[in-house]
């Protein structure tokens, strides 16, 4: 590998690695030269878990590439630019713009906390970045000062590390495909396993602003269990330095995600303070994470003592052998965090045949066909069993489907076969997971997806924003199709679909998921677990 400061090697025939800029659980970041375009770049050499078997290592590799490609689609002045995703020696590398300047964590360590005006400036920049990412269906999931860069010459604030790599370290919990985040900056709904969404990133931003103003997170404790308990239960004490923008910070640190301040409102208030120096008027509904509800207030979400148990189990799991603490954060309904992917040919996103359009409480009410064999695994975390076959993560069950495959589906999903397709449907059919097995077709997966996309307007009402991307699945050529459409009725509303197609052992496999556009992230998580655990029988 060489030493720091040496020309180490050239990857992908064009990127010459020079000085090592940083090293952590996610891998090594190098200053490099793009010799084709003659520009300086940053190259992240992704660390892969060498303890994984070949199958799981390939899944991790493919997941890394999928996430990097998702981030590469984002375009915002405060989001790191991903120039390229390459492979060398079967190891993935992410090529990014080079930011001359350290992280916000480095700045705080060297210069101390920032003043409220600077915190407001940083907050506005990051809120803009998050709004752009969330609009594209991408969650960051690990917002903290170490993942915010500040350009030395301009002061430009740049959000980086959108879960492209596995994050590891003393205060970071990860499980492939389920949970990424640093506990001191992780929202309580994720800690308790209730759900994850854009609101969770906003909580993390609130904690980050506290750190920027005071030098440490309000949830800093002496032990991991103490951190988790502080996030879920303890009174939240904002630092005195936060007084000028306290309304925003308390709004972002509202424990109930349904009552948490929105990105747009937080940005409005921070801009007002930054531009005028005066504390803006609070929003009509007070965002206070520790106050008791007043009579007439909407019911408040509560977090049960399960959170305390989660904290204790996490501490034990971190010390135990082979048990992922992060898996324990996933609830019994499969709402834990995850990573993106996509797929679906020939209008696979269409409603299961024989069902009625949505009405009132949701689509079709036909009874499911209970012909699937379900095997519950004793493992709380997904992974591989002793025979090398995938097991279901916590909150999922492993379905041994009579159609000739097995995969993990969320608890509560029911099976419904429809001709050559098999569906697994959530209650009310909010989420629809589909599988199709067929003979190979001309042009391979990319040809199949391309033809399906061309017929998109005919098979999916209001079809739009469709794109087909060549990718791989377990080292095999694959194609990913993603699109938005109008659903089957006005009551159902707009939906988004992810669809992956690949060939294996002389058969073509197609796995897809669709969901309302407001639940894109959960859909991607369900889809990623399905794809990563799919095994032909």
Automatic annotation (TrEMBL):
Known EC number: 2.7.11.1
Binding site for ATP: 44
Signal peptide boundaries: none
SUPFAM superfamilies: Protein kinase-like (PK-like) (SSF56112)
Entry-linked Gene3D superfamilies: Phosphorylase Kinase, domain 1, Transferase(Phosphotransferase) domain 1
Annotated Pfam families: Pkinase
Bias (Low complexity) ranges: 364-378
Protein name in UniProt: non-specific serine/threonine protein kinase
Organism: Streptomyces griseosporeus
